[in-house]
Amino acid sequence: MEHLLGQEWEIFPAGGATGEAFIAVNNDEKLFLKRNSSPFLAVLSAEGIVPKLIWTRRLENGDTITAQHWLDGRELTHEEMNEENVAHLLRKIHQSKPLLSMLKRLGKSPLLPDIMLENITNNLDLEIQSISSIQRALYFLQENLSLIECDDKVVCHCDVNHNNWMVTKENKLYLIDWDGAMIADPAIDLGILLNSYIPKDQWGSWLERYGVKLEPGLQLRMKWHVLAQLLISIQWHKRKSRLKEMDILLKNLESILE
């Protein structure tokens, strides 16, 4: 990769699960490099949702390398997730026609609740299925499946953790790490964000800043999708033998069911 930039550049791994991200440094200039990132990145950059894409180059082996401006900033705190700019940026993402068009061109189909529930049920091992709160959650998902239809399928980030919201020194907000993006009910992002960061008595005001009202139908859809995502995460942590994290998620599951 060094020959793309020149010998004056130093390149370091940027961490992450895939090992495909790097940091390139030349004096005061700093780039974020990624191998084989999705063409979706170009649209995210054009929409101002991720740091600006500078160039894309193809290697002799067919791999592509993208370079973005290094983000000189920090992740949001839990408390900052309640700020107006977070609601506005998420609304912008959910309303973006270019993002939706690109995901469709990349072959993404809408994530439908019945398919999601079938996949969850098939992937839960017997030990997880024997847990009382898991059984209650599955019952809730099945009983309410016909009530959560949503015609408004949008681009969802699907991992709106505060670690993925980055703000620069100039107060420019970005949402990064789009590997799990889906075409789905916006209640997926909204439910996860509100349940994780916003006191329940403030959900209405947060959603007003986002641009919708807290109605019973939206509440049901958010609860459905949060429970579904929790079941997926609980099984994933168990497979990774991350039992402490799994127990925390089980407690979250019980609190939502109550």
UniProtKB/TrEMBL annotation:
- Report domain Aminoglycoside phosphotransferase positions: 30-215
The answer on whether this UniProt entry bears the keyword Repressor reads no
Q: Which Gene3D superfamilies match?
A: 3.90.1200.10
Q: Name one Pfam family in it.
A: APH
Transmembrane portions of the chain: none
Keywords from the UniProt entry = Transferase
InterPro entries in UniProt: Aminoglycoside_PTrfase (IPR002575), CcrZ_PhaseVar_Mediator (IPR052077), Kinase-like_dom_sf (IPR011009)
Cite the SUPFAM superfamilies for this sequence. Answer: Protein kinase-like (PK-like) (SSF56112)
Task: Output the Gene Ontology terms for molecular function.
Answer: transferase activity
Under what name is this protein listed? Phosphotransferase
Which species is listed as the source?
A: Peribacillus loiseleuriae
